[in-house]
């Protein structure tokens, strides 16, 4: 009977070790996903910097550009520091796991107590580092007030441009309605052959309007699909968390039956590791979403300012009502585009795609 009990305990230990190995494999996979997301974040940050440079070269002066570049560099340094801190936490937890494995082999309780004390000291040090980071963030907030003011000005400009676009769309609709009324009047006055031609023109105009509506609907559908994908990713992450919690509950029940405290500590540390990795994944996904939205908005701003459809004068920001001032503003923009090869390339691409 004693030999059978020992064999059962050995089998249970082997099962627990296999579960630990599976959890370690999951941790490695999550680390690989984190690395891929970090690479995507770096690429998006590079695109964001390029768009900001284009936008600032089109609107602001060199001194303001230098200030904004310094602020962006400080923000990037803060993000890198936070990522390094999280990676250090993960490495420390891995070291603790290894040491607990050694404790399982050696059964040294004193070393376990020492490790717990070291863990408390490390947590205190991390708290101090977080306090220092908070102080740095307060200093950066004072510096970012200027950037916020500039962003508010840019938002006001974007709102004005959107209002002008809406007014232009309303004017185009009114012009189309007037043209339709004129064509209907001509239909009442003209001969049958010309009536057919005018009917064909009306059909073509209606087809163009339907195509524009279809394009708008497709854009709305794409935005909805992106939101649905993000919601599905969040649901999958929540399901993974629930599955991990269920596995941990089962393992805790087994540990209570076997009364293996060191394995319980190991599982708790693995749970902390998994939670940290999942938090990192969620943060990186949120950063990716925010960066994609910012890049899309900045790209639209750059294209609108480079194309300059409203006759804005370069550097003045005022819209004149007469046709002469609008044409002079367009000539100034074309001269400025011709002096810069990058803007010339962008303008040629816009002409091809428009």
From TrEMBL:
Membrane topology recorded in Swiss-Prot or TrEMBL: Multi-pass membrane protein
GO biological process annotation, one example: transmembrane transport
Keyword annotations of the record: Membrane, Transmembrane, Transmembrane helix
Main location: membrane
Any one GO cellular component localisation term in the record: membrane
InterPro entries reported for this sequence: MetI-like (IPR000515)
Domain ABC transmembrane type-1: 93-262
Cell location: Membrane
Transmembrane segments: 12-33, 39-60, 67-100, 106-130, 137-160, 166-190, 197-223, 229-256, 263-282, 288-307
Keyword Membrane: yes
Record protein name field: ABC transmembrane type-1 domain-containing protein
Species in which this protein is naturally found: Dreissena polymorpha
């Amino acid at each position: 009977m004693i030999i059978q009990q020992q064999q059962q305990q050995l089998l249970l230990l082997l099962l627990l070790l296999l579960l630990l190995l599976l959890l370690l494999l999951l941790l490695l996979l999550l680390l690989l996903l984190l690395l891929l997301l970090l690479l995507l974040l770096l690429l998006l940050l590079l695109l964001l910097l390029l768009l900001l440079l284009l936008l600032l070269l089109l609107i602001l002066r060199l001194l303001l550009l230098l200030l904004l570049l310094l602020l962006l560099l400080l923000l990037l340094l803060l993000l890198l520091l936070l990522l390094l801190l999280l990676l250090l936490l993960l490495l420390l937890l891995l070291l603790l796991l290894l040491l607990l494995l050694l404790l399982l082999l050696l059964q040294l309780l004193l070393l376990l107590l020492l490790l717990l004390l070291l863990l408390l000291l490390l947590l205190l040090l991390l708290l101090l580092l977080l306090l220092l980071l908070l102080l740095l963030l307060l200093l950066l907030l004072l510096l970012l007030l200027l950037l916020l003011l500039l962003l508010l000005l840019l938002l006001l400009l974007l709102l004005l441009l959107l209002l002008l676009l809406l007014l232009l769309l309303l004017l185009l609709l009114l012009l189309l309605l007037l043209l339709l009324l004129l064509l209907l009047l001509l239909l009442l006055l003209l001969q049958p052959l010309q009536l057919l031609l005018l009917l064909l023109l009306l059909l073509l105009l209606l087809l163009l309007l339907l195509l524009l509506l279809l394009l708008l609907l497709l854009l709305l559908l794409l935005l909805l699909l992106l939101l649905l994908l993000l919601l599905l990713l969040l649901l999958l992450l929540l399901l993974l968390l629930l599955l991990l919690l269920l596995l941990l509950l089962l393992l805790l029940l087994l540990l209570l039956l076997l009364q293996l405290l060191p394995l319980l500590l190991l599982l708790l540390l693995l749970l902390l590791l998994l939670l940290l990795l999942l938090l990192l994944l969620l943060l990186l996904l949120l950063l990716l979403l925010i960066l994609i939205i910012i890049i899309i908005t900045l790209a639209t701003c750059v294209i609108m300012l480079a194309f300059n459809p409203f006759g804005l004068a370069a550097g003045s920001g005022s819209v004149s009502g007469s046709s002469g001032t609008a044409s002079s503003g367009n000539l100034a923009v074309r001269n400025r585009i011709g002096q810069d090869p990058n803007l010339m390339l962008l303008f040629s691409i816009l002409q091809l795609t428009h």
